[in-house]
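Backbone-to-sequence.
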């Protein structure tokens, strides 16, 4: 069964990762849609896609498209996802699913009503490093988890700065771009849910129009575990990492908050330090494989629509906590 795809958004992430992952899983990219007809045409030619359009309705009307990947700016996700669901297309949507919880629920509910698969493109839970950490915790190798730290401060290259740093109406800023990934990865690795958060944001000169380009949070989870996160567009040399500290040991991972299958994980306990082996397979190939399987009725996507709702709820709580200076509950509506 060949899954045939339409791209809603002629994006860098689709070009660099998703198109290849579709093809690796015996899928086919049939068409691309962009608000600019010229960009759609040039993108299609550069990426071996046979059809291009600037008309969403035209793309969704194609009977030779089974699924769509939505990677437009954030404020467009809800309406495009609902339109795709009504057209009977399976949906892989970039995070955040929307700019409000109500809108995210509306998108996910539209897919349920239409009987189509809805997934959120939270790529990090597909990393071998994070799956190895999750399994080590489940196997009791660090005892009871007590605390976690995520270091996700990176440098946003000029080619990606655009709306992310100057367009509040498009959902720009580091919280909805990066902090939501932290939320999903913490939830996945810990098998736990964030309940409340305090936060401080920073606008250090890269972002404008009142947007934040860095944020630090402290999070309380359902189990009582506490966590810290640091996200930024402005740190050129920080490196990324993920630590989980338990009653019997610690997991210390370096260079794992990335789209690439790299990094290392070390288990430290009373017996010393032990490298934790994991696969270095392509994160997106794994995600698209799970999505294709879900379309065939075999299990769920790697990250569901509900996962996208939960990460958005975290991001909105972070923004409110930073604005008010108060601890804010993470309310998902699920």
């Amino acid at each position: 069964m060949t899954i045939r795809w339409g791209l809603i958004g002629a994006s860098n992430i689709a070009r660099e990762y998703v198109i290849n992952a579709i093809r690796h899983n015996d899928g086919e990219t049939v068409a691309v849609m962009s608000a600019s007809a010229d960009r759609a045409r040039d993108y299609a030619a550069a990426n071996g896609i046979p059809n291009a359009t600037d008309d969403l309705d035209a793309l969704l009307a194609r009977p030779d498209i089974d699924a769509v990947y939505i990677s437009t700016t954030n404020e467009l996700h809800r309406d495009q996802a609902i339109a795709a669901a009504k057209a009977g297309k399976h949906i892989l949507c970039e995070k955040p699913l929307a700019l409000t919880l109500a809108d995210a629920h509306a998108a996910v509910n539209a897919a349920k009503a239409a009987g189509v698969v809805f997934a959120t493109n939270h790529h990090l839970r597909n990393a071998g490093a994070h799956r190895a950490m999750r399994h080590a915790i489940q196997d009791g190798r660090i005892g009871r988890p007590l605390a976690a730290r995520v270091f996700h401060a990176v440098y946003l290259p000029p080619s990606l700065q655009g709306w992310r740093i100057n367009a509040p109406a498009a959902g720009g800023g580091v919280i909805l771009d990066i902090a939501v990934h932290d939320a999903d990865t913490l939830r996945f690795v810990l098998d736990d849910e964030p309940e409340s958060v305090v936060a401080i944001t920073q606008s250090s000169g890269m972002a404008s129009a009142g947007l934040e380009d860095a944020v630090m949070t402290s999070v309380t989870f359902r189990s009582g575990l506490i966590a810290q996160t640091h996200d930024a567009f402005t740190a050129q040399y920080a490196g990324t990492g993920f630590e989980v500290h338990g009653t019997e040991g610690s997991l210390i991972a370096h260079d794992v908050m990335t789209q690439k299958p790299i990094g290392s994980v070390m288990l430290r306990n009373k017996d010393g330090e032990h490298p934790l082996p994991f696969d270095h397979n392509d994160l997106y190939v794994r995600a698209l494989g799970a999505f294709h399987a879900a379309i065939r009725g075999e299990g769920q996507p790697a990250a569901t629509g509900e996962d996208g709702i939960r990460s958005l709820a975290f991001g909105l709580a972070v923004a409110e906590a930073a604005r008010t200076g108060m601890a804010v509950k993470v309310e998902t509506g699920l």
